[in-house]
Amino acid sequence: MSQQDGAGVEDLERAIRARAAANQMVDGQLCRDAAAAGIRMAVLVEGRSDVAALAGLAHRLGRDLVAEGAIVIPMGGATSIARFVRVVGRDGLGWRVVGLCDAGERAHFDRLLSRGDVFACERDLEEELIRALGVEAAEDVLDGQGDLTRFRTFQRQPAQRERPASAQLHRFLGSVGGRKERYAGALVDAMDLGATPGPLSALLSRLKA
């Protein structure tokens, strides 16, 4: 499942990211592309694992965020938020902006967004998802992805042996590039919707408000 529906929205995301990276304001073409896509809300997140989790959860709930007028934009880190808000917020495209972040990065978001539009994971997304599933179910997901043997080897490393299994899982997910993004979607797919992490559930509810 792609993070956004349709090449036009993917192109729009790339254009926004390029503008933010160059610290440039919007131009007429970007405004026209945004209007054509029907987008009026931006969800700013730190990385692509957040995009995968939100896309997967929305899909399971039968929701199409793009059809609802929302685009999820990975910023590559919380410290870039000012540049992205400049492009998509009141002084740029004029969109409503909400954000999802790790607890340790919340201050960056709170400085620029309304407090009711900032949703912070207790530590980070991976910890939220591991807690929602529980260790046994999370290990089942690893097994389904062909990574359980690698994880068992990882657990035997001297630095990991004495750590709780949940902490080992958390570290394993971040130990290889791209693994967080791949597992964000897989863990959401395996999750009981009744155990959905509060920040994700609250953010998706906020988009409907």
Structural class given helices, strands, pairing? alpha/beta
Beta percentage is 5-15%
CATH level-3 fold name of the largest domain:
Rossmann fold
**Could you say which overall geometry the principal axes of the C-alpha atoms support?**
elongated
Q: Main β-sheet: number of strands, strand sense, barrel status?
A: 4 strands, parallel
Uncertain spans, ≥5 residues at pLDDT below 50?
Answer: none
Order of adjacent strands in the largest pleated sheet: 2-1-3-4
User: Count of DSSP helices?
Assistant: 11
Instruction: Report, as a whole number of angstroms, the end-to-end distance.
Output: 26 Å
CATH class of the largest domain: Alpha Beta
| Tally of domains | 2
CATH architecture designation of the largest domain: 3-Layer(aba) Sandwich
How confident overall, as mean pLDDT? 94
Radius of gyration: 18 Å
What is the tally of beta strands?
Answer: 4
Description:
It is a single chain. The chain has 209 residues and is α/β, with parallel strands linked by helices. It folds into two domains: 130 residues, Rossmann fold (3-Layer(aba) Sandwich), CATH 3.40.50; 65 residues, no CATH class. The protein is built from eleven helices and four strands; from the N terminus they run ααβαβαβαβαααααα. The protein has a four-stranded parallel sheet, with helices on both faces. Strand 3, helix 5 and strand 4 form a beta-alpha-beta unit. Helix 3 runs parallel beside helix 10 and helix 6 packs parallel to helix 10. The longest helix is centred in the first third of the chain and has 15 residues. It is elongated and about 55 Å long. The mean pLDDT is 94.
